[in-house]
Amino acid sequence: MADDPRHISEYSIIGIMNPEGKNEPTSLVKNFYERKKFKEVPYYVNIPPPMDLWYDKLYFGRVDRIQNGIILKQQSDNLKQLGNPEDNVFALNFVADAFNDLQANLLKAGNANLINKNHTVFYEINATKGLHDFSADLRTLRNTLKSRFHAWIASDVRTQESIVDFYSYIEELRNYLKAQVYTDPITRSGYVTSNSSSPLISGLVIEVGSGDCGDDKKKFDKFMRDPNFNYFAKAARKYGFLVDRNAPWRLIADPFSLPMLGYLDAYGVNEQSFFATYYHRTFHVDLENLREDLRFLYNEFVLRHPHIFVTAPGKIGCRTQSTGGKWSGPRPAAGYNVSTVVRKPAPPLITYTGAPALLSEASSANAIRWLDLYFKIRLQEEGITFTNYKHRFRQAVELYGVFDFNTATRFINNEIKPYLYNLNLGKKVLTSAPTSVRIGSVEDQTTVATEVENSSA
Q1: 38 near 17, Cβ under 8 Å?
Q2: String of DSSP letters for 252-309
């Protein structure tokens, strides 16, 4: 356990005071030893235990209490700005209130000579970072998929000719993903449980300085040896924050601590309504966002490649495509005809949030195809293989047929959830390669027709 004094015996005092772990290329043996030292030495003694986002709370702010992926609702009334307007730093409203009180506490302590006012970063603190705009990350991931997939299409003429509309584009995407050459997340759920996402997307995190998380020596000397650090950590806890063990300039709101529950109460929010108030469960929004993302990619493809010219066997010397003695497209070899196919942009897609009885037979069949694509993408994102996939997918389809689309996606989420958490996410390398594990009870509520958004909060 981190910060357990029993770990200190194997390290010298000089070594403890000079942690040298770095992300930069160095001796693997030395870096293993230094990372292990920084992880095990009780640097945080006699102060509130910090939060460890590398080795313990890997998904804090990105999953709810039963491990559903969550993503912040885009509602401005849930947020508050910190500091000067031009700094553009935001946090959840109750977190901002707690931070303002902590900020005032440190100023009063300094003015009363209870803490050092000089040579410290923990006196007149200001928020340097807050909520990270995850929409920018999602656009980057979408553009990465676009560039790589479209390069795949361009590499083969038969593949290019096979794409005549949106659904043939999706079929080719299936083939591309089967090749397992693309490993970045595609869905919102895949994003929040990957290294592509940051703890700052939660709105629960505020930074009061800047440093390199991967340079143990610099963060130890600048922050952890600061004369006010112990007071800062204790005052932070008084207002419901924890210090990040591996980024000691970072404050993490503990929303269900007694101080933070008091700040939440001012907004009419409690422990039971917290997640429903501030977050979406990602599996609720995954599929519709996936469909819109793929529609966007297809329409971008059509914009750049509006026509294809398909060559097929024909009569010798036949010029069915000639006009005034000139070919309208690429001139075929003798005995072949060329036909032109115009690719049309995909129109807005229908929403599958209701029961299948409200859809046409064709639309319901399309909904099932989308469920299949979604299920397979989620498995690929998490590196999971089900030998009985057909059986599991059939269960999802049956739930869709009896209830609705959301019930089917909840089932898919529950099937994947027990396997998806990689305990090495975000870790700085010690020794072992990443491995997937089962975690405890992560089954969502019984799959029923009635949705209770905050039943697990």
Answers
A1: no
A2: EE-TTSHHHHHHHHTTT--TTTHHHHHEEEHHHHHHHHHHHHHHHHHHHHHHH--EEE
In angstroms, the CA 414 to CA 66 distance is 10
| Alpha-carbon span 280 to 286, nearest angstrom | 10
H/E stretch holding 157: helix 157-162
Both tokens of residue 156? 């083969």
193/241 Cα distance (integer angstroms): 23
pLDDT at 172: 96
Look at phi and psi of residue 88 and say left if phi exceeds 0, alpha if psi is from -120 to 50, else beta.
left
Query: Tokens in use for 6?
Result: 């029993």
Of 217, 224, 218, which is closest to residue 244 (Cα–Cα)? 224
Which DSSP helix (H) or strand (E) runs through 341?
strand 336-342
The 3 state secondary structure assigned to 102-142 is HHHHHHHHHHCCCCCCCCCCCCCCCCCECCCCHHHHHHHHH
d(CA 62, CA 342): 43
Tell me the DSSP string of 59-108: TTTTB-TT--BEEE---GGGEEEES-GGG-EEEEHHHHHHHHHHHHHHHH
Tokens for 320, please give them: 């069915």
Residue-wise pLDDT for 397-446, tens only, equals 999 999 998 999 999 999 998 876 544 444 443 333 333 322 233 334 33
Q: For residue range 12-26, what is the model confidence (pLDDT) as tens digits?
A: 565 455 555 566 656
Q: Enumerate residues 6+ apart whose C-beta is below 8 A from 78.
A: 72, 92, 93, 203, 277, 278
Q: What SS3 class is residue 345? A: coil
- What residues are paired with 307 via a beta bridge? 342
Positive or negative, the CA dihedral 172, 174, 179, 182 is positive
